[in-house]
TrEMBL record:
Protein name: GST N-terminal domain-containing protein
Superkingdom, natural source: Bacteria
CDD domains documented for this protein: GST_N_family
Any Pfam family hit: GST_N_3
Residue ranges occupied by any GST N-terminal domain in the UniProt entry: 28-104
Organism: Oceanisphaera sediminis
Upper classification of the organism: Bacteria, Pseudomonadati, Pseudomonadota, Gammaproteobacteria, Aeromonadales
Matching InterPro entries: GLR_AS, Glutathione_S-Trfase_N, Thioredoxin-like_sf
Length: 107
């Protein structure tokens, strides 16, 4: 990183999650009574996205989330940029930003 980048706070930038070209490459891990999940699901509805939802009160889904993402926290968006490779995106605000970017790129 150059001094210029460092002075501009580049060390705080996170690598953006990879974009996909189809909604079947996304899955939303969530559960009922989670306000952060509801926030994401409202945006999913607003954007008209038909995203698979995985309920983490089901043991198989919880196990997949913990094994893949490393935390049990929901919501988490599972992104499959290449067959069999998964990126797990936590944080409702980051998920919403990603979904808006996805909807803009896949009109
Ligand atoms: N900052 C996170 C907060 C998410 C959060 O706190 N989710 C709760 C459920 S509402 C959770 O999964 N907590 C951890 C746990 O239950 O193990 C976000 O905005 O997504």
């Amino acid at each position: 990183m150059s001094l210029f980048d460092w002075l501009n706070g580049a060390e705080n930038e996170q690598e953006p999650a990879p974009m996909v070209d189809a909604v079947d490459k996304l899955a939303l891990y969530q559960r009922a009574w989670c306000p952060y999940c509801e926030r994401v699901k409202m945006v999913v509805g607003e954007l008209g996205l038909d995203i698979t939802e995985c309920d983490t009160t089901e043991p198989d889904h919880l196990q997949a989330l913990m094994a893949g993402g490393g935390q049990r926290m929901v919501p988490c968006l599972r992104i499959e940029p290449e067959p069999g490779r998964y990126v797990w995106l936590y944080e409702s605000a980051d998920i919403i930003a990603y979904l808006r970017r996805y909807a803009g790129a896949n009109k």
